[in-house]
Design goal:
- By secondary structure, this protein is an alpha+beta fold.
- Helices cover 49% and strands 17% of the residues.
- It has two domains: 53 residues; 139 residues, Beta Polymerase, domain 2.
- The strands form three sheets. It has a three-stranded antiparallel β-sheet with strand order 1-3-2. It has a three-stranded mixed β-sheet with strand order 4-5-6. The chain has a two-stranded antiparallel ribbon with strand order 7-8.
- Strand 2 and strand 3 form a beta hairpin.
- Helix 1 packs across helix 3.
């Protein structure tokens, strides 16, 4: 038999789920709500599990970048980078099936069943500079800005291909999402200024 407190807890969790598109077990703990309520609500069809430890209201319309929000919740020190960041900024034609994520050196790679994560290790200013905070389904997500992302594409051209880096530079420049000052700044941080120099000169020629 359900107690009054059970019903109260369920109502409180559902109210929380309405405020946040993606809900974690730890969000309940912060509000002194028992996590067992999640199982009951899933069984009752009032909540659905969208990833391990991440829940949402059934049928809720979520953004195309929902996978980034899921990763941000579970790997809070990570920064969305490379192909996934290009997608966020609307630059180029890449549509990655995995989330590209920069993480600190000596940090264990994230073990997520869903979504798939492609981890890239960075350190120092290459990891801490050029970060934008965007809101995805109510979740704050760290993502490298457009100029830093283009510089990263040249730095990691052996991973993603020089053609992808060139497309990102040309498309971002054409869309006026890049400035030469910002590109030089991040090229210097990534130590690829000499590599990028002829391509930067070509887009301004």
């Amino acid at each position: 038999m359900r107690s009054h407190s059970d019903s109260t807890h369920e109502q409180a969790v559902l109210a929380l789920a309405k405020q946040r598109s993606l809900l974690r077990a730890r969000d309940l703990a912060e509000h002194q709500l028992p996590t067992v309520v999640l199982s009951r609500l899933i069984t009752a069809g009032k909540l659905e599990r969208v990833a391990r430890g991440v829940y949402s209201l059934p049928g809720r319309r979520l953004s195309e970048h929902r996978s980034l929000a899921e990763v941000a919740l579970r790997v809070p020190r990570g920064v969305i980078c490379l192909l996934s960041a290009l997608r966020v900024h609307g630059i180029g034609t890449q549509a990655p099936f995995e989330v590209w994520l920069a993480i600190p050196h000596r940090t264990p790679g994230p073990r997520l069943d869903q979504p798939t994560v492609h981890a890239v290790r960075m350190s120092g200013p290459a990891l801490t500079e050029g970060i934008d905070q965007i809101l995805v389904d109510g979740v704050e997500v760290s993502v490298f800005n457009a100029a830093k992302t283009v510089a990263d594409c040249f730095k990691y051209r052996n991973k993603i291909g020089l053609d992808v880096a060139l497309e990102a530079l040309r498309d971002g420049w054409t869309q006026r999402k890049l400035t030469m000052d910002a590109l030089w700044h991040y090229a210097t941080i990534d130590r690829v200024a000499n590599v990028m120099r002829p391509y930067l000169e070509s887009v301004t020629a």
